[in-house]
Design goal:
By secondary structure, this protein is an all-alpha fold. The chain is 63% helix and 0% strand. It contains three helices and no strands.
């Protein structure tokens, strides 16, 4: 397989991956401030298929 064909196929594969993962980006834009409502964040996490990552920090 030529180098140019590999390059084209890699580009097509990359575009397909980006097109199928754009759903997760939409969930972030759907509700600004999702980080202040845990129930809403859980719902959006389930809808988008993205895991919910929670960090607890101690602030003095």
């Amino acid at each position: 397989m030529s180098l140019m064909l590999r390059f084209v196929l890699t580009g097509i594969a990359t575009l397909l991956i980006l097109a199928t993962t754009s759903k997760s980006v939409i969930a972030q834009d759907a509700v600004p401030g999702w980080h202040s409502n845990l129930t809403q964040a859980l719902r959006l996490s389930e809808e988008s298929g993205k895991p919910l990552f929670i960090v607890f920090r101690c602030v003095r």
